[in-house]
Queue: 2 jobs
Job 1
Amino acid sequence: MNLYIYTFHRFHPFFILNINNKQLNYSNTKINKLISIKWQLILKNEGSFTKALNALTGKKIKVKMSQKYNYKCKNISRNIRCVWLENSLYTKLIFARSLWLFIYNNNINIELIKNRPVGNSFIEHEIDIYRNIHELYYGYSEYLEKNFIRHQAIWGRKYTLYYSYNSYVIIQEFFSPYIVNLFN
């Protein structure tokens, strides 16, 4: 199975773990055998990962928009957003792609997410969300390896964010192998 990052750039997984949040506990032996503790802390993170990166690096994390599409049909707006999260040294740490579904009468303002980290935006505006992690992947992508400047396998995850019991965004994140060095 190939996951497309952009139309012409693929992520080739060595394996995909289809999971739900109940399976993400730290006593799950299948996950513990496959994934190191440091990577588990990254992949299982339930809070704002940008805030966690700020704490680990002691530096502000920047959001660099690489693609954004907005499709409108009747009273529904779909937004696709692709961003890089970088530290102040322009080291790319995460590539994230998100698909947003907005119905115009909802309480989430699309302006919240413009050029800002998603998690930080929700926290700052005191919007209570729930995250359901669906998949963890491990694989490679020439495009991501080139941008991360690391020729190593890459971890990723896919999850949905819910607000008021409705799904609003599906997010895929791909993590630079460099991130694990921040724990040393």
Job 2
Amino acid sequence: MTMPLCTINPDLKESMRKFRFRRATTNAAIIMKVDQVTSEIILEEEVEGLEDAEALRSSIPDTQPRYVLISWKIEHSDGRVSFPMAFIFTTPRDCQPQLQMMYAGSYNYVVKECELTKVFQIRDLEELDEEWIQTNLNK
């Protein structure tokens, strides 16, 4: 049996487009999940005003894979402030193999649709801390 490639819900595509062009000056994230029934990638939650990495981690389930699009405040050494965006694929080691395959099979498609160059994969949500964000988004 082969796993179908998931499609992206049109409403999610619009949310992603608006997110890329947002002008807000707060940390934010779009959390996406695969609907196993429809084989569609849908918006699980859009979070604005995240205080820190802990708030981001608490918005992401630690037992199921998720695609996460973030915009995070980075303070550069020369005083500039930027809000780079990144795509993060969280895939816990102990989740259902069928679910992992659905996410892995759709990964490249979702990355392409996000149109971002900062793309990361995380196995353990504990890795996603402020230091990790600052280091990886500051590249």
